[in-house]
Amino acid sequence: MEQALTWKDKAWWAKYWDSLKFAFYCMTHPLDGFWDLTHEKRGTMAAANTILIVTLIVRIMKLRFTSFIFITVYWEELNIFLYLASVLFPLALWVVGNWALTTLFDGKGRLGQVYMATCYGLLPYPVVQLPLMLLSNGVTVDEREFYTVISALSLIYAGILIIAAMGQIHEFSGAKNLLFTIASLFAMLVMVFLLLLFFSMITEGVSYIVSLVREMLFRM
Question: Please, which residues have CB within 8 angstroms of residue 178's CB and are 6 or more apart in sequence?
């Protein structure tokens, strides 16, 4: 039986760097790239996690290094964990929602593959936003439209890559992939509603128990 590689092995690092570089191929050749990512096992979870972490780091760096012309940050009111959760929470909802729906309708992608492909699709964000935040400090107010358009394009491009990735790993046609993209977004809303309902019920239940205990202690 072939022994699994670990991060202590040189072969593991060679595979890691190759899969990380392959993310740039996926960014420029999404159809071929995302097919090979999972079907030819060109991607790795380590590279996917790296891209996600770099995306989060760049998102934080934008607060510090982007010109005040484009971003005004109130540091005393900023909760960094909630700020990061604004990326991680929708990501988790998308991965679970897309996987759950496509599994019911002959989607080929597994949960881990959906996560991996989604993280690979995020690459345009750090690639564009990192130099853009530095460029923002040399841009005047009259040129802010240029910054805004490029920033928006990085998000749109990432979204297109993620949609393309889902089509390739699930082996869906273009129309079917678009349909399940919309359905996945709807599933995200449903999950948010259910989570809010669940936590609301938990809160009400805890409040009731606390009030009941207080009443018992008062009567004793």
Answer: 163
